[in-house]
Design a protein that fits this description.
The complex is a heterodimer of chains A (333) and B (164). With 333 residues, chain A is mostly beta strands. Chain A is built from 2 helices and 18 strands. Chain A has helices at 2-11, 143-146, and strands spanning 27-28, 34-47, 53-66, 71-86, 89-91, 96-107, 113-120, 151-161, 168-175, 189-202, 205-216, 224-235, 238-249, 254-269, 272-283, 290-302, 305-315, 324-332. Chain A has a 16-stranded antiparallel beta barrel with strand order 2-3-4-6-7-8-9-10-11-12-13-14-15-16-17-18. The longest helix of chain A is centred in the first third of the chain and has 10 residues, at 2-11. The two termini of chain A are 21 Å apart. In chain A, 36% of the residues are buried. Chain B has helices at residues 5-30, 47-54, 77-87, 95-103, 115-124, and strands at residues 32-36, 68-71, 110-111, 128-133, 142-147, 153-154. Chain B starts with a helix and ends in a 10-residue tail after the last strand. Classes of the chains: A mainly beta (333), B alpha/beta (164). At the A-B interface, helix 1 and strand 3 of A face helix 2, helix 4, strand 3 and helix 5 of B.
Chain lengths: 333, 164
């Protein structure tokens, strides 16, 4: 696709426009179908009773190849916690090169695509767009990382049914474990299958539903079923989004975990935005739910650069979620 | 009708026509038309399909070719009108959407600097699709559908109201 466009622009600069690099649009290697992009973020954290910490949290690189054929390749590698600076200590001990995604796609049609490899688990909304420049807060809702493994290695069928109104997105996936380069800090699937659908009810409102049935590698024999709902509404700079999940466990013989969050964003003017979030999480062994509150102010300089500040506090904090002050800067490139 | 009224009636009819016809012509000129390569046979079956193409949700024509949509610059009033009428949002309101798509390796439609650039690109690229003011399109491109000022889709665009 690149060649004819580039050739066209080159032959008529008076009316054409060459595809110049723009932050947030990636960089296509000239005369190839290979595109490179990514994002970077740095966090400043002051958690309760902990010293200040400055962290280069993500240096993420996307590489994808998408030619005129129906074959497509995508990878994302993420250098996590590359550098951590505290009052009297600078360290690279926490650095880890994560393989976030590595997959090949075959597009039979818009409605029928096949994916093989390691991909983001399609449960809810946050997990699928979790990159720091895309989300409004430095911290992530706990339920979007605790309730299920965030990545799966296996196969997926997905597509957009353009014959259904404004287009129904769906994905159906399965995994037999064997995670590609598993992150030692995260649990992985031992086996899983599931589905996610989302539909734009209006241009400014999208809702989605998830289902997953799985076992995790660290809890073999405990079969879990999860259902979830997610949605986002945005208009004129305002945004309301949320997710909720309900999970059952074979070992616990019923409800194992349920929770949800709702997040609101409101423009304050001059590119400043107020952000608020409430999260509720109830685990089966807990006698009361954990409640997490967050309030912050962001400065979205442009489409690809955002500065975030937030203060969070947990009530009945059984999930050991550290409250405190966080600030970060994140950029797409 | 008494003879004395006939000149007055003619005058009135002329005045009404003079008032209405330029407005009709202006309506035609204000319409946008979706253009594809001549001879490609590519068809747009409704506004939802057009929106899916410009959101990169639909990436293939029915004949299997990968669709190459092109846009005018975000600050071009015709781009803004197209975006509002077809996608329901202004270009800048789609920034978050395109960030999410970029995260999954999907880029927005390429941007060309002018209507003439769109026509020239579409005329030479079999899988391309673009849009121009109805009266700016010429024989180098095929007219797929027109978009009226309310966002309605007109299946068989006509340039009859365009100034010659």
């Amino acid at each position: 696709m690149v060649l004819p466009l580039t050739a066209f622009a080159a032959t008529d600069n008076a009316v054409g426009q060459a595809w110049e690099y723009q932050p947030g649009d990636g960089w296509t290697v000239p005369h190839t179908d290979l595109t490179a992009g990514g994002y970077a973020s740095s966090d400043l954290t002051k958690e309760s009773s902990e010293p200040w910490t400055l962290d280069i949290s993500h240096l993420s690189l996307f590489l994808w190849w998408s030619g005129d054929s129906r074959f497509r390749f995508f990878s994302e590698t993420d250098l996590e916690n590359a550098l951590t600076i505290q009052a009297r200590r600078t360290s690279t001990d926490g650095a880890y090169l994560a393989l976030e995604r590595l997959y090949a796609d075959w597009a039979q049609s818009d409605a029928l695509n096949f994916r093989f490899g390691k991909f983001l688990t399609p449960i809810g909304r946050w997990n699928l767009i979790h990159a720091a420049p895309l989300v409004w807060t430095t911290s992530r809702p706990v339920m979007t990382v605790q309730a299920f493994p965030t990545n799966a290695t296996g196969a997926m069928v997905y597509g957009t049914l353009t014959s259904v109104g404004a287009g129904l997105d769906y994905s159906v996936y399965g995994s037999i474990g064997k995670e590609l380069r598993p992150d030692p800090d995260l649990d992985t699937f031992k086996e899983a299958f599931g589905a996610h659908v989302s539909y734009p009810v209006q241009p400014s409102l999208e809702i989605g539903f998830s289902f997953a049935s799985y076992e995790e590698a660290n809890e073999v024999g405990d079969h879990k079923n999860l259902i979830g709902v997610d949605g986002v509404w945005s208009q004129n700079g305002y945004e309301i989004s949320g997710e909720a999940i309900y999970r059952t466990s074979s070992e616990k013989g019923g409800m194992d975990e349920r929770g949800g969050y709702i997040q609101g964003v409101a423009p304050l003017g001059n590119k400043f935005y107020a952000v608020g979030r409430y999260e509720y999480l109830l685990e089966s062994h807990a006698d009361a739910p954990s409640n997490l509150w967050l309030a912050g102010v962001d400065y979205r300089w442009n489409r690809s650069l955002i500065l975030k500040t937030e203060f969070s506090k947990a009530q009945h904090n059984l999930i050991q979620e550290p409250g405190g002050f966080l600030a970060s800067v994140a950029a797409l490139f | 009708m008494p003879r004395v009224w006939r000149p007055i009636a003619k005058l009135l009819a002329f005045a009404i026509a003079a008032a209405i016809l330029p407005a009709a012509a202006a309506g035609t000129e204000d319409q946008l038309v979706v253009v594809v390569a001549p001879g490609s046979g590519h068809r747009i079956e409704g506004r939802d399909i057009l929106a899916a193409i410009y959101r990169r949700k639909k990436q293939y024509w029915n004949d299997g070719q990968r669709i190459e949509p092109v846009n005018l610059p975000p600050d071009d009033p015709r781009r803004q009108r197209f975006s509002q009428l077809v996608l329901g949002l202004m270009p800048q309101q789609l920034d978050g959407y395109w960030n999410e798509m970029y995260f999954h390796g999907v880029l927005p439609p390429h941007v060309l600097a002018s209507v003439e650039a769109v026509i020239r690109f579409v005329s030479t690229t079999p899988a391309a699709i673009g849009y121009t003011p109805l009266c700016s399109a010429d024989t180098r491109v095929a007219l797929a559908v027109a978009i009226d000022v309310q966002g309605g889709i007109i299946d068989k665009p006509s340039q009859d109201g365009c100034p010659r």
